[in-house]
Each structure stands twice: as C-alpha cells, then as structure tokens.
Amino acid sequence: MAAYDVVDRSLLAALSADPRATVVALAERLRLSRNTVQARLARLEASGAFLSYERSIDPAPLGYPLEAFISVHVQQKLLGAAVDRIAAIPEVIQAHGLSGAVDLLVRVVCRDAHDLFRIDGEILAIDGVERTETSLAMGELIPYRLGPLLER
C-alpha cells in the first residue's frame, strides 16, 4: 500500500475532478512542471493507484436499458469455478465477493425483464450456485467517486 504525499494527493484530486485532463493542463492547474507531473503520474500508475482506464460506457444505447444486482449464494468449495462461469456471461458488468450471508453481488445489464430472467437462470444453472436474489436498479444516486476522500 503506497503512501501519498501532498503533491500526489493534489494530482489525484485534480484527476478526480477532470479525468481527461492532459499532463500540461494538470501541470498548469497545480503549478508544477510538466516533467514533475509526468514522473508523478508514472510512479502513481506503477504503484497501482489507478483503476482500469476503460471508459464508462452507457449500456442503454447498446440495447441494455435495465440494470440489476443479483445476490448469489454459492457453495464455498465451488466459488472459484462459479465466478469463472459468471464472468463468461456478457451481461455481467461487475461482481464483488462479500462477507456475510451473500457470497457474490453481481451487477448485470439487460434488455428487459425477460432478459433479466434468462440471465438469472444462467447464473442459477452454474454448479455450486444455490440460489439468487435479484433487485432491479432504480437509478444511480451516488456515482463512484473519490473526490471527497481526497479533499479530506
């Protein structure tokens, strides 16, 4: 786990506010040299500070206007294989392993309720999956963010 100094935190806060900012724009905003910003970004990237650079793409125009969360209960000895099979379902866009009563929280996108039923059935058909509980997402109320943590 890397420790970030004031310059690193300022750079991360600037990137959080404007993820598409160029090195030159960041240097101007933070009143640092371009070389300093470039070196710091390289070091931050090497330390694992950045998550995936995959752009956030709205699935609705792709024909997937609905999003749901599926809580999956899995036999522990088959968890790894079940995760591999779940990852092979194209509509699965994210999954987290959880502690507690639920083993996995799977985020899916779907075309309609029938499509969601099909996806849930695919997950239920996986060896080791005991049951699922599905909740339709009504809307994202707080998007992924780290700005407030960086400002703290």
From TrEMBL:
A GO molecular-function annotation: sequence-specific DNA binding
- GO CC annotation terms, alphabetical: cytosol
- Name the record gives this protein: AsnC family transcriptional regulator
Q: Is Transcription regulation tagged as a keyword?
A: yes
Q: Is Glycosyltransferase one of the keywords?
A: no
What does the UniProt keyword field contain?
A: DNA-binding, Transcription, Transcription regulation
Q: Which organism is it from?
A: Agromyces agglutinans
Q: Name one Pfam family in it.
A: HTH_AsnC-type
The processes (GO biological process) annotated in the record are: response to amino acid
Give the classification, highest ranks.
Bacteria, Bacillati, Actinomycetota, Actinomycetes, Micrococcales
Q: Where do the HTH asnC-type domain residues begin and end?
A: 4-65
